[in-house]
Amino acid sequence: MGEENQTFVAEFIFLGLSRDLQTQILLFILFLIIYLLTVLGNMLIIILTFMDSRLHTPMYLFLRNLSFADLCFSTSIVPQVLVHFLVTRKIISFGGCVAQIFVFLLVGCTECVLLAVMSYDRYVAVCKPLHYSTITTQQVCLQLALASWASGTIVSLVDTTFTFQLPYRGQNIINHYFCEPPALLKVASADTYSTEMGIFAMGVVMLLAPVSLVLVSYWHIISTVMQMQSGEGRLKAFSTCCSHLIVIILFYGSGIFSYMRPNSKTTKERDKTISVFYSVVMPMLNPIIYSLRNKDVKGALRKLTRRKTFSQRQ
Fold this sequence. Notes:
mainly alpha, three-stranded mixed sheet
């Protein structure tokens, strides 16, 4: 027993979302459909915002980055989960776990900042419309997008280092379906308090700071909209922000619930459900929310469809 406790684990074993075979088959079908819709929806947003000149604006530059992040977010988790639904032993190598946590945190933190940047873009568009083109220049927008990815990379490096500086000996069974820091810390062979506090502190920076920027931006947006005399103007202003606001509430809400509360020693099924929502479902919902409520995206899609139909007839 003492020898086992001195042996560093080479792989981790997931308990997964269910141990019932029929349930796993149903989940495999459901997750496969969600993943295909995620890939299709986000790839469509990326292609449309590249091809249609009307979508070469700051908002769609950020939306393209958000779609790419969603694509990476989902792909870092779902394909492995699909494989695990079909096998009895759900394993991941130690190195694979490190890589999964790094990518998961990188794109997740990048999305946090991107959503805050997009709220600032909406603030300028609604509150300072006459100065929009001079404030949100192409150079500024590119710098903001790069800053989002840079901040995500830094936080991911720090949190991944915090997580894997701990020893993992003997116990390698994770009551989860992918490598996520809160679940992984529960099987560490040392006291995790300082690591949890470090991750919590980074969570404060990466969740509460962007949320504060979002709240300030939307406070000014709402104040400006309420002062508008035209009902049509109010409706137009709200419609430009509605899709973004829905995504913000869903993404930040689930993220704050998971990372901004004390870590318990047992993983509850509710925690897994919340993880499924922001790691599997949200990347699929984002392009649907933006495309269904956005006439420019729908117009670009119709234009692309007509172009393909015409070329086929030729």
